[in-house]
Each structure stands twice: as C-alpha cells, then as structure tokens.
Amino acid sequence: MTTKSNRGVPRHLAASTDDTKDGDDIDIDELIAESRGKKPGLDSSMRTKLIAESIAPWRTFRLFLYGSLGSGATVGGLITLTGLAAALSGARSDIDISGTYKDLAIDFGFAILFVVFAKLDVDKGNELNEQVEGKIKKKIESRKASKSIQSRETTLGSLKVSIKVTEDGVEKEGTIDDIRVGAAQNFVIVAGSKMVVRDALLGAQLLKGAYFARGNVLIVPYVTGEAVSTGFKTRTEENQPYVAQAVGDGWDAYIEAEFSDAAVQSGGNNVREEGIAIVLAKTGEVVRRGVGAIPWRKTIDELSDKLATSKK
Hints:
Blueprint: H1 28-38, H2 44-55, H3 59-89, H4 97-158, E1 160-164, E2 171-175, H5 176-182, E3 186-192, H6 194-205, H7 209-214, E4 217-223, E5 245-247, H8 251-266, H9 271-274, E6 276-280, E7 286-291, H10 296-311
Parallel strand pairs: 3-4
Antiparallel strand pairs: 1-2, 1-5, 3-6, 6-7
Helix pairs in contact: 1-2, 2-4, 3-4, 4-8
C-alpha cells in the first residue's frame, strides 16, 4: 500500500509532483506516529501540515525560491522600465532602447513565470493537504469502529438463537455464549438481503452437513429488513441441522451496528447489497468479519486451525 516518497532535490524549479504521493499511497499510520513523536499534543490542522510537509519536503523551499527570484526579476524590470522611460523622454541618450525592450520583456516574463510556478505548487500543496486530512479522518473513524467492534463482542454472546437438538425437529433456545461454551460450537452469522442469505445457505449446502458437523459450525442467517421470528423455515437450505435461527431482542441493533462499521472499514457504500459475515470461534474470539460471498471451506478450515492453535 505504501511507498516511500522521493525526498531528493528536485531537478528543476517548476512545480513538480515527484515528491507528492497519490492519496492512496500515503502511509498515514507511520506519518501520524512521526508527527506525534516530534510535536506531542498537536492539533489536527498542524498535524496535517506536518504530514504534508514530510511527504513533499521541498515545497516550502521552492516557494521561497519562487518568491525570491520573482521579486528580483520584478525589481530588475522596474529599474529597466525607469531607464526606458528616461530614454524615451530624452533625459538619457546612453540607453539602447531596442535592447532595453528586450531586457524588460525578459525581466517581467520571468516574474510572471515564477508567479505561475508558485500558483501551481500552492494548488498541489492544497490538494495534498486535503488528501492527508481525508486519510486521517478515515483512519480515526476506522479506529473508532474497531473499538466499537471489540465492545460489541460481549453483546454478540448474549444474543439468543434457536437450534435443532433432535432429528425430528425439537428446538432449543439459548444464548450464543451458552451454546458456544456448552456445546463447543463455532458460529457464522450471515446478514444481508434475502437473496444474499439464500446464496450463502445454498453455498453451505453444497459442502454437505457432515462438513459443518465435523467443524462444529452453526450458521445463523439474518435477513435484513424483516422481523426476527422463531421457528425454522421450510426451504431445504434453511432447514439444515447446522442452521440456527436468530430469536429474541437485540439482533436488529447488533446487525445494524455491524453494517455501519463494515461500511466505514471497507470504505464502500454497497455492504448492505453484498451482505456481511461474522465468524465467531468456540474460543469466544471473532476471527473474521467480511463483506460479500463466504468461502465456506476456507472459513471452516480457519476455525479448525484456530482451535488447534489455541490448544498449543
């Protein structure tokens, strides 16, 4: 994701993008840490400025150079203009008028050129500041979402599900934590539109129930926009022994919070169309949160590896 910026001396005075990274290539974590290390307690605007300067370290020097050279050219042009005016008025006869016109054009031409260079460089600097500020805001939002996700794992454990306990359809309700600890079950919560949930269950059905039984995996489908109801469905993929049903209060708020955080962390606005999955290991750790289709075989293998690692 990140590449080091070119911090060498620019080869020319023109405004250059050589030392300016694209917004997607900015390593905000590293640069924020550097800025904090240098100036603890900085406000956001000062931190943004320091990070932008560390990405484009020669911009300030170039602007100083443009100002100095432009001022010199302007002063030279004014002196030349004074001499030309004296020559045209007849006050001085020792001035070559044609050569003076040429010198005047050169002086003011360079002055205008330096103004253009400075304007281009300032615009690039403003653009970089906006990119850095946007990256910092996104990083802060992502960190807030991560903290929210961690605190929500307790809520997840208290939510209720209904599972089949016999082949003839006898059901039992309990919290996810009770079933996870008491029956050593892993959970995969699949949330999204009816089509997203159905596709996920059909994909799981292709692996056969024995695969989920060996992995001690229960799937909890949750169709957004519909009320949580008890009882199992009649569709084949929904009526499998490894499919649990979300019941009771709290699911709406939990799933809505998961969708909000997924949108922040993925940077996309289509998470509700693609659906989300939360994978909870029997150890109580959420090992994965993902957007889109679920790779069932890989997910179950990952849960098995997680359990084997925790036993070491």
